[in-house]
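Lecture 7, part B: from sequences to assemblies.

Below are the input chains for today's worked example.
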Amino acid sequence: MIITLIFLGCLLTCLGFFDKWVHFARCGLIIPITGFAHSMMSAALEYRKEGLVTGIGTNMLKLAGTVIIYGVISAYLFGTLRLLMFGA
Amino acid sequence: MTFRYNNVYINEVSTVTGPYEAKGPLSKYFDKSYDDLYFGMNTWEQAESKLIEESVDILLTKIKRTKFDIDLLISGDLLNQIVASNYAASSLGMPHLGIYSACATSVEGLIVGSNMIEAKQIKNCICSTSSHNNAAEKQFRYPTEYGGPKPKTATFTSTGGASAYLDSKKAGIRIESATIGIVTDIGFKDVYHMGAAMAPAAASTIYRHLRDTKREVGYYDLILTGDLGVIGKEILKEYIKTEYGIKLKNYDDTACMIYDLKKQAVYSGASGPACAPLVTYSYILQKMKNGELDRVLLVATGALMSQTTVNQKLSIPSIAHAISLEVIE
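Predicted structure of the full complex, as structure tokens:
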């Protein structure tokens, strides 16, 4: 299910529909995993002409990078908290 | 700082736009409009450069001259290091001055060109400006395909290139006087509400222009601000009334004119360096030539921030330059 949603998010971004649907559906499309896929795909599309490394590689996580960084940090913090409170 | 000119005229103008502008109410006044945002080029940046190149080419055809007859090309755009202008100037092969005042670039160019013509340093010049919606989105906001919702106060960068041919030959529209703006910073930080950041700059320039020329607001048939947008326009009216005691009459904003605000999804209106000249060089000059307007004060407004300073939470400095256009008697 998740992989299908990610695929659809990417495909619709490439076809140019996703941003128009977001105007209508707003957080319904941006908050789920489709929004994450959309942010990575749109950045990759935008920078594809600046090369594989300096373009796509550098910029693909431009928007999604924040989510990953703070996702990992909060997972670590809450994991530690759970360990301290409830034991292993 | 206000200058008066005795012998500077906008002989001819040209405008090239993208598809959104062509769907707007002023479409019939533009010289050329494209259906596609790439204009046959490979990237947004090249497309923006093409807008300047094409508008200058159309202008040269209109005035029946070649690039060797032009003393100077003054141009600017919204991209970093004004690359669109630099690439266009490189292929046009004219002596070039690159300028930047964000969305006030068009009037800055007219002022620089007019001063040099008035001082007889050059015989003629071409002043060009361009902006491209997708190139600006990519540089200042998010990737173009990204559909993050924006607040209603946001503006939509217009796509277009506009050029004006300035000469001391008496033809077209006269440039009567100009006022150079002061950079104002009221500490406003919302990058999605640039109308509010730029309104104080516009108010200051209008006030100083009227003070220096000893004129009343009613002297002008139309006072036209650059790209404040629907909300910024109301802010300016209120601000100039309380701060300087000026009640604006016959006032409009080019951001509210170029698009159909009811049908097109452009938030609070247009923006970008091309917005003010696209409207002025097409619709307004046509109205002046038809005798519907005699005196117009064009006040182009620009927000002078960069993406880096926005991320550093610095406030947005703004500028407004004014130029007074008159019909030749």
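Note for the exam: Chain B has a mean pLDDT of 93. Keep this in mind when comparing with the next example.
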